[in-house]
Design a protein that fits this description.
This protein is mainly β and 187 residues long. 11% of the residues lie in helices and 68% in strands. The protein has one domain (23-186): Porin (Beta Barrel). It has one helix at 2-22; strands at 23-40, 42-43, 46-47, 49-51, 53-67, 70-86, 91-108, 113-129, 139-150, 155-164, 173-186. It has an 8-stranded antiparallel β-barrel with strand order 1-5-6-7-8-9-10-11. A two-stranded antiparallel sheet has the order 2-3.
Length: 187
């Protein structure tokens, strides 16, 4: 009877240890280089050109290991995006704060490098601009792709490009595009 209990305890401990290796949680943050692109950027019948803004993102990460070479990485991020608008007479900044939820497939090329691809849903939380117009769409859908680098067992770096597929504005045909550079730590 003692042997059965001992074997059960050992199997349970091994199972808990294996489950801990299959799911990792962590935090990440970094810089955004964001812009809005489109064919018709017109505000109050004036045409504008856009310039990128530098902003930030921060949030939570989980990694679910399915095989040695493949895992799923859902994230919950606060990400600021937008652009600076310019014409011959004026310049203003439009900054949008999103709750972004990317769900990435991670294809591990080796123990250090992974290719990360997947969809991203973003929900508008705030809009700050210099011209007092609240015209951003409240939902955005996009795709994300990039590379991940495991520096140590728990510390990682990521580079990613996120392309918005839906309109970011109610009045202009613009879409968000963001280059993200992140550092993170898993537990």
């Amino acid at each position: 009877m003692k042997k059965i209990i001992l074997v059960a305890v050992v199997l349970l401990a091994a199972s808990v240890d294996m489950q801990a290796q299959l799911v990792k949680f962590g935090i990440k943050g970094g810089l955004n280089y964001a812009n809005q692109t489109g064919s018709d950027i017109t505000i109050n019948s004036d045409n504008y050109k856009t310039d990128a803004i530098t902003s930030y993102h921060v949030g939570l990460v989980a990694e679910l290991k399915l095989t040695d070479g493949f895992s799923i990485q859902p994230e919950l991020l606060y990400s600021t995006q937008g652009a600076t608008y310019k014409n011959a007479f004026e310049e203003f900044k439009n900054e949008l704060g999103y709750l972004s939820i990317p769900v990435l497939a991670k294809i591990h090329l080796n123990k250090t490098v992974s290719l990360d691809l997947g969809p991203q849903a973003s929900f508008l939380l705030s809009e700050r601009n210099d011209f007092d117009v609240k015209n951003a769409e409240t939902f955005e859908f996009g795709v994300a792709g990039g590379l991940g680098f495991n520096i140590t067992k728990n510390f990682f770096l990521q580079g990613r490009y996120v392309l918005g597929l839906t309109e970011a504005s109610k009045e202009a045909e613009v879409k968000n595009s963001v280059v993200q550079v992140s550092a993170g730590f898993t537990f």
